[in-house]
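Researcher: Can you fold this with zinc ion in place?
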Amino acid sequence: MQWDLSGFIVRFAIGLLSFYLAGATFAFAGGPDSFVEQVAGGTYVHFGEVSLTTKQNMGDIANLGIVVGKEAAAVIDTGGSAVTGTALLAALRRVTDKPLLYVINTHEHPDHIFGDAALEAPGVVFVGHHNLPASIRAHGPFYMHAFRDILGADAMDAVRLVTPSLLVNATTELDLGDRKLRLTAWPPPAHSDCDLTVLDEQTGILFAGDLVFLDHVPVVDGGVKGWLALLDGLSSLPATVVVPGHGRRVAPWPEAVADTRRYLLTIQRDARTAIAAGVPLARAVDTIGMSEQDRWRLFDDYNRRNATSVFSELEWE
Ligand SMILES: [Zn+2]
């Protein structure tokens, strides 16, 4: 997701210690790792906390991926701070000695891109939706400012937004050496204005970015109608397992999209009902989506904002 966090100085210290230990023991052996889990041969996931961004978790709240081919490796998203990006790079170095060729960002939100600069190096190509550069230009300064208060000046001094040089207009295939990634740029607006998914064709693992949420309530920062409109196409991708943008597990595809779809349909229906009945926004936000309250974590942190966004989107349709 994006802007918030919670619970991590101790966890981070323990994590750091165990990963130095793990690194020492399992360097390049592909063995157990405390930062990433191997979900298929050559495919690794770091599961971020289901939390708002906080000083304690340093923005480590989104799920990140590593895919390793015969010739090269790619990472998918980089986390919500340079600390997380650096940890991802360290994990990459533990699981493979292949060069990092691509850093793929699934969209513009800080918890997915603030680690980018930590992975910048000669030969590394940054990849994103064709709208990603415009989104970074439009919202980057706000994110950089807003997160100073949450993460602190020191952490933010290490964050630099990287504009992708390889842009995806519809679909693009990246080859890591007998390992193809199929990138799809979805029509905006949906979760955001620049949603990109990554399908690891060999294993059938789909990195859905924030088009799919599990456990963590979906967050609407683009448009509910556009998001719902792309779900059929997304569901038809030949994947078997999805890594959601948020939620600490993988799940069977396409079944795993059902929760996100149900939540979006619910808030869309409730907003239309309120608008048709002439209920003003200030009161409608207390009703929209409330039947979903017990189904999601962080519901109280995001549902009212989603309700406001959806109401505004649908008010003049
Ligand atoms: Zn996110």
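Model: Folded with zinc ion in place. DSSP finds nine helices and 13 strands in the chain.
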